[in-house]
Amino acid sequence: MSLPFRDRPTNSVTELAKHRNRGAAQRTLLAWVQNCLSLIGIGMTLDALSLFAQTGERDRTMLEWVPMTGMGAALVGFGLGLLGLAISDYRAAMRAIHQRGTLPRSRAVVLLRPAIAIVIFGLVALLVIGLSLTDYTPSLIEAPPSPSP
Amino acid sequence: MPPPQDIATELAKERNRAAAERTLMAWIRTCLALISFGFGLDRVVAAIAWAGNPIGALGLSRLLGLSLVALGTYAMLMAVLEHRQELRRIQRNDYHYRDRRSLGLTVAIALIAIGSVAFLGIVVRAVAR
Question: Which residues of A touch B108 (CB under 8 A)?
Answer without folding.
Answer: 29, 32-33, 83, 86-87, 90
